[in-house]
Design a protein that fits this description.
Elements: E1 24-25, E2 37-40, E3 43-44, E4 54-55, E5 63-64, H1 75-78, E6 82-87, E7 90-96, E8 102-105, H2 107-110, E9 124-130, E10 133-146, E11 161-165, E12 176-177, E13 186-193, E14 196-209, E15 215-219, E16 223-224, E17 231-233, E18 240-250, E19 263-269, H3 272-281
Parallel strand pairs: 12-18
Antiparallel strand pairs: 1-2, 2-18, 3-7, 4-16, 5-14, 6-7, 6-9, 7-8, 8-11, 9-10, 10-11, 13-14, 13-17, 14-15, 15-19, 17-18, 18-19
């Protein structure tokens, strides 16, 4: 694991829901080099797939989950814990994690740019394909289960969140929490595109650690609107959650470019604070 301590430029501008401006300039602290544009990959429930942004690093390797031969037989069941979160009119990705009635995602899926709970603006549900077909289960986000209730105004390292389901989901195995991760490790990112479950097998390219111990995983995974909160998963037979996807930083997000410190996707890594939050939710 990289032990490099990083002093990031402040994340003063974040993406907004579709009704607001979608991209903001990342303004670095004095003396820091600008990354360019920063965006959170969140979409509204009514947002059309055709109009969504897509951030590609190197190449676009996403494919329907059932076509991912490299993941082996039984992939659909292995990644069954991944579903969609709808909360207050926006949509992201979530996954049953550590317990049968707890879902992890990004904090900005649960709190808006003003720090208001999205649940106050509309119902919050988790949509998942279980043994008996697609289910929609109410969930309750909690400030105590989020890295920040103002995720648009803090570092992306704190942009993780969890919510309690109204009831456990029978027949779906919760993802476990991962521990060790280092640059070069392969990961899988499972999400939904056009209502279909897809997967990207990509790599962690850097692990950036702050003085407080909060970590950010930087990757060459594809990013797209509606992907916020998707887990970075190990490729084990029992996948483990290493981080939750937050967004991208890029000087030119519309262009296909190789990975660099000016073009990458990133997520908030699993840390001790999140572990304690999940333990308290059980």
């Amino acid at each position: 694991m990289s032990k490099r301590t990083h002093h990031p430029p402040p994340d003063t501008g974040r993406d907004r829901p579709p009704a607001r401006p979608r991209l903001a300039v990342l303004r670095p602290a004095s003396g820091a080099r600008a990354v360019g544009l920063i965006g959170m990959l969140l979409t509204s429930v009514a947002h059309t797939h055709a109009g969504e942004r897509r951030v590609v690093i190197g190449h676009d390797g996403r494919m329907p989950l059932e076509h991912a031969a490299a993941l082996g037989a039984g992939s659909a069941k292995r990644f069954a814990a991944t579903g969609q979160v709808e909360c207050g009119g926006v949509r992201g990705i979530g996954q049953v994690t550590a317990s049968a009635d707890v879902v992890t995602s990004a904090a900005h899926v649960f709190f808006d740019e003003a720090g208001r709970p999205r649940a106050a603006q509309g119902r919050c549900v988790f949509i998942v394909d279980g043994p008996e077909g697609r289910q929609t289960i109410p969930l309750t986000p909690s400030a105590q289960l989020c890295g920040s209730t103002s995720p648009y105004g803090v570092s992306g390292r704190h942009d993780w969140g969890a919510a309690r389901l109204a009831h456990p989901i029978a027949g779906i195995r919760a993802y476990e929490l991962g521990t060790r991760v280092k640059a070069g490790d392969p990961i899988a990112v499972v999400a939904f595109e056009g209502g279909r479950k897809t997967v990207d097998v990509c790599h962690v390219r850097d692990v950036v650690t702050t003085e407080t111990g909060a970590r950010e995983l930087r990757t060459d995974c594809v990013g797209f609107d509606g992907m916020s909160g998707a887990a970075y998963l190990t490729l084990d037979k029992t996948p483990k959650v290493l981080a939750v996807h937050v967004g991208f930083r890029s000087a030119d997000p519309g262009a296909v470019m190789v990975y660099s410190d000016r073009h990458y996707t990133f997520g908030a890594a699993i840390g001790q604070v999140l572990r304690r939050a999940l333990a308290s939710a059980r």
